[in-house]
Design brief:
The protein is α/β, with parallel strands linked by helices. The chain has helices spanning about 15-25, 45-55, 90-95, 110-115, 125-130, 150-160, and strands at about 5-10, 35-40, 55-65, 65-75, 90, 100-105, 115, 120, 140-145, 165-170, 180. It starts with a strand and ends with a strand. It folds into 2 domains: about 5-80, TusA-like domain (Translation Initiation Factor IF3, 2-Layer Sandwich); about 90-180, 3-Layer(aba) Sandwich (Oxidized Rhodanese, domain 1). It holds the Pfam family TusA.
Length: about 180
Amino acid sequence: MRTDHQLDVQGLACPMPIVKTKKTMNTMEVGETVEVIATDAGSKADLQAWAASTGHQYIGLVEEGSVLKHYLRKCNEAEEREKTFEQTASLEEVQNISNDSIVLDVREEVEYAFGHIKGATSIPFGELFDNMEKLDKTKTYYVICRTGTRSDLACQQLAEHGFKHVYNVLPGMTAYTGELEKTI
């Protein structure tokens, strides 16, 4: 399949496929296409949600074994306003939340298994939409991932579906110094 640009992000994990895609998109002309070659399973949801939040077109995905080929098209500059979720919380705030609040970890299952905040609920970002009905819209959610990118997109999705009390935890698990719970 012919594209104007090709970007190889094989072996890179979140947020790098998005960071490198964003850099490539910044060099492209409106209407040009890019093939992003990835191996991170999380990129399936991440790149699609990033494209939606920036106004770029996510054309589709071709899976060839463990290789994921994403196709995106750069859209009009006026449409490219990347949305970020406004309600945020610090890691310190998360350590002092009430019992009726929920820490929602949207990292991949393996990331969660190797270490997460004690009592956190795991729903990987790529599975969030299909599991929203399991969440109580009256609760307060502190959404966390590794760096704040996936959790930002998750917060946007939750808010779009009627969740009122949602906070993106920044800067994410990379800066968390508290005790970790493991499920391995």
